[in-house]
Write a sequence for this structure.
């Protein structure tokens, strides 16, 4: 009886140790990355107009307007095609800095991504 309990306990321990190893492997093989953020395009505006994120953040620009818009970095860092309604464009901001952008079709539509270390 005592032997059985002992064996049971050690198998539980082995199983939980295996789970820990699997969890550690999963964490170490996934690249560390910041959560995605979204900028909505609607009514001829980017919302939020300014967004502050950490390096490595992917921003998804989502056109929710009923006419096409695009997303163009002021210094050529990125350039989407014309996005139809419900199309989106993603860009990962790897380096710290301030990234102004506008709509290639409506230059008065402007926004800014601030990447801080
Ligand atoms: Cu536009």
């Amino acid at each position: 009886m005592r032997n059985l309990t002992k064996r049971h306990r050690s198998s539980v321990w082995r199983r939980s140790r295996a789970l820990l190893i699997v969890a550690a492997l999963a964490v170490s093989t996934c690249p560390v990355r910041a959560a995605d953020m979204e900028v909505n395009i609607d009514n001829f505006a980017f919302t939020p107009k300014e967004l502050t994120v950490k390096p490595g953040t992917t921003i998804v620009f989502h056109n929710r307007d009923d006419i096409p818009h695009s997303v163009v970095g002021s210094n050529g860092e990125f350039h989407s095609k014309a996005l139809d309604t419900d199309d989106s464009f993603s860009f990962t901001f790897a380096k710290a800095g301030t990234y102004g952008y506008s709509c290639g079709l409506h230059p008065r539509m402007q926004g800014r991504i601030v990447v801080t270390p």
About this structure: The mean pLDDT is 84. The pocket of copper (II) ion is lined by residues 69, 103, 105-106, 109 (CB under 6 Å).
